[in-house]
Amino acid sequence: MKKIYTFLIAFALIHPTFAQETIKLPKTPIGGRPNIPSDLVFQFGFNQLNNRPESMSVNFLGSRTFNVYYQHPIPVGGETSGITINPGLGIGTDKLAFENDENLFNNPLLGPESSILKKVKDVYGKEIDISNNVVATNYVEIPLDVTYHLNKTNYSKGFRVSVGGKVGYLYNAHTKIKYEDSDGLKRTLKDSQDFGFEKLRYGVSVKAGSPGFYVWGYYGLNDLFKAGLGPFGTQASQINFGLAINVF
After folding, report:
1. The whole model's pTM is what?
2. pLDDT of residue 28
């Protein structure tokens, strides 16, 4: 995971070759932001499930999302049109913390690429003390936004809004459970498998704010799990939202 983030930062610092043929947008450093005509964005927020069954409740604070994207603005309709198209590349990471100390386990009735929701204590013992219990999914993603800048003469200043979407490919999914047993033995269990998750995800996004700081939201258009392979045969999709910092 660290190698991927290192690659993204290095990729951001070395300006893409294709960007040399586009019009470079002047930027004035804001609050110490480097004067680089591209965006390296860190998104922080929460990960929730839409259209989920009642028995699949998630803990709001424990279900978080963290994304890192590098995007390059390409002007449309001239330098002062106020419109840019922003393609990019990045990593999306989500966590789901289920209520009642539940987590995903393989469903032997459906095969290796499936999951069922069980209480962790029913699997590892009633006397354990659970300190961490989440499902994590990690995606390589391609975001694409259309952005309107209210300041048409200097895109590095002023309010802007974006609509767009992203496509992601799941490269890792795992559960992570930390607990202490009745003898005081502390254990950390990490189980990496597909759990019936769809390999591809896609959806629409909206963003609004300043060049250095904005709010964002994402609405998934496809199901989180493959048909019939997730818990309760769920057709739940994702809703993510939060705040973002643009360091470039």
Report:
1. 0.83
2. 43
Tokens 């929701």, residue located: 117
Which tokens sit at 236?
Answer: 């739940």
Of the candidates 72, 63, 90, the residue with the CA atom closest to the CA atom of residue 19: 72
Say if CB 222 and CB 109 are below 8 A apart: no
Helices marked H in 23-86: none
Element holding 121 (H helix, E strand): helix 120-124
Answer for the pair 236, 49: CB distance below 8 angstroms, yes or no: yes
Compute, in degrees rounded to 10, the torsion defined by CA atoms 25, 28, 31, 33.
50
pLDDT of residue 1: 54
Residues of the chain whose pLDDT is less than 70?
1-37
Give the Cα-Cα-Cα angle 61, 45, 116 (nearest 5 degrees): 60
pLDDT of residue 7: 47
Contact (CB, 8 A) for 26 and 36:
no
Query: Cα 7–91–28 angle (5° rounding)?
Result: 75
The alpha carbon dihedral of 235, 198, 118, 45 has a sign of negative
Euclidean distance between CA atoms 13 and 2, whole angstroms: 17
